[in-house]
Amino acid sequence: MFFRDPVSLARAATLIAIFCAVTVHASTIKLRIVLDPCDRAPKDVRVVMNNDENEQPPLDHDQTYRIWTGKWEDKREGGQFPDVRLSASVRLGGARTDCEFAGKPEKDDHGVFIAVFKFACDQNPTSDVTIKSEPFAFRYVRFLKKSGDKTLGCDCTERSPSLNGTQTLLDTRLPMEVLRLGLEYSASDAFWIQLNDLPVIHKPRKGIPVTLDHDGVVDAIVRSTPGEGFGPNAHDIVKVNPQIKPDTRVTLTVN
Amino acid sequence: MRPHIQLFAVVVLLVAASLTAQQRPIFDPDDFVDPRQHDGAAFISRLVLGGASGFVDDYRPLHQNAAVLELANSLYVRRVQLDYKISDRSGKNNPVSVCGCAGNPIYFPTPPSRDSIPAAPPPGLKETAQFAWYHAADGGPAEPPVMLRYRMSWSWQPVDTDATSIATGARSRLSGRERSFGLDGDTYFRVVGHDVWGSLLYARTVRTGTADNRSQNELAYMSRFPGRAAGPFLLRATLTVGAVSGRGASGINVVNPAFEAFWRSRGTDMNVHLVWSPLAVRSGTEGWQTHHQIALFIDRALYVKLFRPRKD
Are A231 and B195 inside 8 Å of each other by CB? Predict the structure, then answer.
């Protein structure tokens, strides 16, 4: 018999444990996003769940474009909604919201949890930043500090997965929003550039791409080091670092 | 590290500190290198050439201009940094006369009194050895861990004094030295959402075998403000506030802001620095005084070598 063999028994137990773990670590919830009335109702919104830029589930809108609904699979390892708080922010096309936690959980007729997010109107203008990186794969972090004293407000630290080629960061609230770009020289390590420190970001000329060549990237990496900043030794050592290939190029366009 | 080894290390540091000394010289370029910026070991040799008006050495004005040539060698291995620096400061060496009055030599010009700011050692060769290690601490939100450096510095400088006897005109030479030991540790904290960077500095300097033997202990905090880019120039500022012993004024007696404009020439890899460092110091006899130190210098790496990382 299958279970008479102790090795098979152990395998079966492992499979059951994995099945249980998978069951526990993924649950589908519903989303309801309520936008306070602004001058204009956005026709297309994107929601970023749990500070993960890769988690942008599709949304449907009501007739007023004020209420947007969708579904999201909560795969967080530390627990799921509503046991663990869930945050989100919304890109509104020309504006963005802060990050907020979902309010008191609701349930639909089938007992599925609904995470309800209510976002106040936000009129701060935003820009789209397009990043092109060669030959590095890259990732980015968008940081936006909680504004005001909203009970459910929280800091945003939204991270992207590893990306290649060209990527557009929609609705960045510059210069308040901090953008950090990581040039990946291995699967786990990256050289980080604080994009806000670059003139193209803090004094943008809309639509005009700016390319950082090898030396420009080296400059930006050294200047982005927290603390001491731009020591000459750091500059010379980073410059000869073979991990930053001579054909490194980073092109940034602000629109 | 075991607790008794940590305790031993602390005791050794304290004993060393009590025996021996330093403020970073104005022309010493920032040699901080984040260990994450190099996988293997790195060696760099740097030449510094320039001059300073109103040169100040360890909060002691030299009362003259000085030209400076420095060779700085730094080895970075993982989170450890070793430096050996040798600098030659050239300037006027003021003549000294001596009177063997009542069996005790009296030197002219008379050295500053114990309650005054000591004179800086005369220009000459100075060697410095440094040992530093880097420690990662939590950064702000969305920031990678910040790297803080802790460093020990030893400096020594021969101080030879040619003295002419007032009575006989005979010349004699005093072969003295100045030694110093310093500790500095970077600090980082956040105040109302803002990063505050700085360093806590301690140093002891002892000058012996000279016509003006002095010693001083320094304890200071240097705040480093965020750098800013202005066109091709990078600007940064620091503010040092501290207490230095051996000048007849207890408490805070040093306030030293410094403003640096720094330009890197891409074609030549040379860095040009212009630093203005007004120094306000207080002594028992003179009260507060302000000295303006302005330095213009260039530095360039002579040799840079990255060693391949060891495969663990």
Answer: no
Q: What per-residue confidence (pLDDT) applies to B10?
A: 45
Pairing of strands A113-119, A27-35: parallel
Residue A228 above 80 pLDDT? no
Q: Looking at CA atoms only, how far is residue B162 from chain A in angstroms?
A: 39
Residue A252 has pLDDT above 70, yes or no: yes
To the nearest whole Å, the CA of B94 is away from the closest chain A CA by 35
What is the DSSP secondary-structure string of B208-260?
ESSSS--EEEEEEEEEEPPPEEETTEEEEEEEEEEEESSSS--S--EEEEEEE
Q: What is the per-residue pLDDT for A227?
A: 67
- Which residues of chain B have a CB within 8 Å of the CB of A222? 37
Q: Which of A147, A236, A241 to mutate to test the interface with B (most CBs of B within 10 A)?
A: A236
pLDDT tens by residue, A194-209: 898 788 887 778 889 9
* Residue A78: φ, ψ to 5°: -80, 0
Mind listing the domains of chain A with CATH numbers? 27-119 (2.60.40), 127-254 (no CATH)
Supply B78's token pair: 């993982």
Question: Which among B18, B32, B3 is positioned nearest to B205, based on CA atoms?
Answer: B18
Facing residue for B74 by CB, picked from A191, A222, A233? A233
pLDDT class of B13 with cuts at 50, 70, 90: very low
Cis upstream peptide for A199 (omega within 30°): no
Query: Nearest Cα to A193, choosing from A205, A204, A175, A179?
Result: A179
pTM (2 decimals)?
Answer: 0.81
Give yes or no for residue B109 having a pLDDT over 70. yes
A132: pLDDT confidence band, cut at 50, 70 and 90? very high
Q: Model confidence over B267-293: pLDDT tens digits?
A: 899 999 999 999 999 999 999 999 999
B290's enclosing H/E stretch is: strand B287-306
- Residues from chain A contacting residue B39 (CB–CB below 8 Å): 241, 243
For residue A213, the number of C-alpha atoms closer than 13 Å in the C-beta half-sphere is 3
Yes or no, beta carbons of A141 and B142 under 8 Å apart: yes
Q: Which of A228, A235, A239, A244 to mutate to test the interface with B (most CBs of B within 10 A)?
A: A228
Interface with chain A: mutation pick from B30, B77, B275, highest number of A CBs within 10 Å = B30
Tell me how long chain B is: 312
ipTM: 0.85
Query: Using the beta-carbon criterion (under 8 Å), do A240 and B304 form an inter-chain contact?
Result: yes
Interval B58-105: pLDDT, tens: 999 998 999 999 999 999 999 999 999 999 999 887 788 888 777 788
Q: Are A204 and A174 in contact (CB under 8 A)?
A: yes
Structural contact between residues A59 and A100, judged by C-beta atoms closer than 8 angstroms: no
B222–A contact, CB cutoff 8 A: no
Cβ–Cβ of B146/A227 closer than 8 Å? yes
Is B142 in contact with A143 (Cβ distance < 8 A)? yes
* The pLDDT of residue B201: 96
